[in-house]
Amino acid sequence: EVVLKRNRRSLVDSDCDFNSPALETLLEELLKHPSSWPFSKPVSRKDAPDYYDIVKKPMDFRTIQTKLYDMKYMKDEEFIADVMLVFQNCQQYNMEETDEYKSGLLLSKHFLKRVREMGLNYQADQKPSKKRKA
Where is the Bromo domain (predicted)? Predict the structure, then answer.
């Protein structure tokens, strides 16, 4: 795996729109953050039977990690858009008073701050999804 990572990084380092090592570091930070617990793996139908009826483009950190390691991202923006999709889905599905919703808000603020600090390529012009009605 060390050789694979080294080869993968050398392939993408020449592309100035993609910074794989920085994105890997950022994802590791997100996974270690105390507010990441709702987003570490796909939502199960057992835990939320109606989730996939409400959320049409599910995303989670495990899926993002797999896509990152499988070189599915060509630009920083693609990775960042998937992370933002996690938070948009959270706001769409969960009620504002839930721990999941609050965790999503907190972690999304932390994430965007780190994106700016790391100088990653991203235009934050996406509007959040509509909130779920009670």
Answer: 31-101
